[in-house]
Write a structure and sequence with these properties.
The complex is a heterodimer of chains A (about 250) and B (about 210). By secondary structure, chain A is mainly alpha-helical. In chain A, about 35% of the residues lie in helices and about 0% in strands. Chain A contains 7 helices and no strands. Chain B contains 9 helices and 2 strands. Chain B has 2 domains: about 110 residues, Orthogonal Bundle (Rna Polymerase Sigma Factor, Chain: A), CATH 1.10.1740.10; about 80 residues, Winged helix-like DNA-binding domain superfamily/Winged helix DNA-binding domain (Arc Repressor Mutant, subunit A). In chain B, about 40% of the residues are buried. The longest helix of chain B is centred in the first third of the chain and has 23 residues. In chain B, helix 2 runs antiparallel to helix 3. The chains are: A mainly alpha (about 250), B mainly alpha (about 210). Chains A and B meet through helix 1 and helix 2 of A and helix 2, helix 3, helix 6, helix 7 and helix 9 of B.
Chain lengths: ~250, ~210
């Protein structure tokens, strides 16, 4: 240590400058006081674990997880739709005793079918009990409606479910005609003869054909003109996400 | 460099043997302290408390704060003695690390003091007759050390005043050796700049133009 000097050292080294500071001296009695106070404290046992902060791991839901979840969900929807279509495909021939139901026999079609698809079948076959109930209700409604002579009934006459189940296709295709039905049959016959394949214009007072995905093939703009309509399942095709239309589960 | 033979500068021009020369004894004493031995603990306090107080005093520039830091350090030593295991720099490194962390905590602590609760504190500065004896350079150096950032001050206190090697100081400050050397260089350069600002020139640490 260079010791204190009256003149500041202008060119001293840093070590020599630091040496000029006197070392702090520990006050007397501090060690004894520490021993006296500290030894009163309890000691931590050997096996005692240190307290650690508790961290709750929050579930992380990243994009991949969400996509996977969506895929499972969509797969389930598609599976249900396929199962419904398969059930419909298996149920139709078992009840009617025929092959796959033709497209013109769509049960929910309230509008007349196209000329190509339904040349002489204004009334669809109703194979399933549920559809038979719907048809029975339609029949009842049409009967009530037809009781008034000034009102045209758009719904075709449909035999009861028991008759439908036992009837042949020819019988099903040609139900007992009423004055209103004969008029419709004549109109359709004209359409077939003239080769008009456009979608038929609904009769006055008839309910508009349902439109949308997976609904009746009688929808006006469902398929291109002159193209055979494929067989669609009874249930609307769903799946693919909540933004898709026609999902019913 | 063997840290067991390291000698520390005490500031008075003499070199004293560092307390970690008897590190093996520290291990056996710690085993005794872990079993509740008060005598062994008193031996450790007598051996290490002067150095720890010096370090804390240079870091905090407050005598009472330094005493509290030393007492807190030995309190932790006493409480954790049953499960203490020697590693790294041994007990000396552990004690200095705890002391440095306690000093950092107290330096970073914000102590709002309102006018109504303003305590009566004794003037820690030297007496007037002592001030007359101190030269301008010494006061300027003390002020520059006080104004240094805490990490810079810790590096200078450990490596210069306590004679720690860079490896041991790096272990105390939880740094690697390269980071410790860089920290020490920057600390010396910063101190030189602060001394130059106080009209004190240093002939070393001249930066290339």
């Amino acid at each position: 240590m260079n010791g204190p000097s009256d003149e500041p050292d202008k060119a001293a080294s840093l070590d020599s400058l630091l040496d000029r500071l006197p070392p702090p001296q520990m006050p007397e009695g501090l060690a004894a006081r520490i021993v006296r106070d500290v030894t009163r404290l309890p000691q931590v046992a050997v096996g005692e674990p240190l307290p650690e902060p508790v961290r709750v791991q929050q579930p992380v839901q990243n994009r991949r997880h969400r996509r996977r979840h969506w895929m499972v969900w969509a797969g389930g929807g598609t599976g249900m739709a396929l199962a419904a279509s398969l059930a419909a495909a298996l149920l139709l021939p078992s009840t009617t005793g025929q092959g796959p139901a033709p497209a013109e026999t769509r049960p929910r079609s309230t509008a007349p079918a196209t000329a190509e698809a339904t040349p002489q079948a204004p009334a669809p076959a109703v194979p399933s009990p549920r559809l038979a109930e719907d048809s029975a209700a339609t029949t009842t409604a049409s009967t009530i409606t037809s009781s008034r002579p000034d009102t045209a009934s758009p719904a075709p006459q449909t035999p009861p479910p028991d008759e439908v189940a036992n009837a042949s296709p020819a019988t099903t295709a040609a139900p007992p005609s009423t004055p209103t039905d004969s008029i419709e049959a004549d109109d359709e016959a004209e359409m077939v003869d003239s080769g008009n394949s456009d979608a038929p214009t609904p009769l006055p007072g008839a309910a508009p054909a349902p439109r949308g995905w997976g609904y009746a093939p009688g929808a006006t703009n469902a398929y291109p003109r002159g193209e055979a309509q494929p067989s669609l399942p009874d249930e609307p095709i769903g799946g693919g996400g909540p933004h898709r239309r026609g999902r019913r589960f | 460099m063997n840290i067991h033979t390291q000698h520390a500068r005490t500031g008075d021009g003499q070199e004293s043997c560092a307390p970690w020369r008897a590190q093996d004894d520290d291990t056996s004493l710690m085993a005794e302290v872990g079993r509740g031995g008060v005598e062994a603990f008193a031996t450790l306090v007598d051996r290490h408390s002067p150095v720890l107080y010096r370090v804390a005093r240079r870091m905090l520039t407050d005598a009472h704060e330094a005493e509290d830091v030393v007492q807190d350090c030995f309190a932790r030593l006493w409480q954790n003695a049953p499960r203490w295991t020697p590693s790294g720099a041994g007990l000396v490194g552990w004690l200095h690390r705890v002391t440095m962390n306690l000093c950092f905590d107290r330096m970073r602590r914000v102590q709002p003091v309102t006018a109504a609760t303003l305590p009566e504190r004794a003037d820690e500065g030297p007496l007037p007759d002592r001030i007359l004896q101190l030269d301008q350079t010494q006061r300027a150096i003390a002020a520059a050390l006080t104004d240094l950032p805490e990490r810079y001050r810790a590096a200078l206190v450990l490596c210069y005043y306590e004679g720690f090697t860079n490896a041991l100081a790096a272990d105390v400050l939880d740094l690697n050796i390269k980071a410790m050397e860089s920290l020490l260089f920057r600390a010396r350069r910063h101190l030189r700049e602060m001394l130059q600002a106080r009209d004190i020139e240093c002939r070393d640490l001249e930066l290339p133009a």
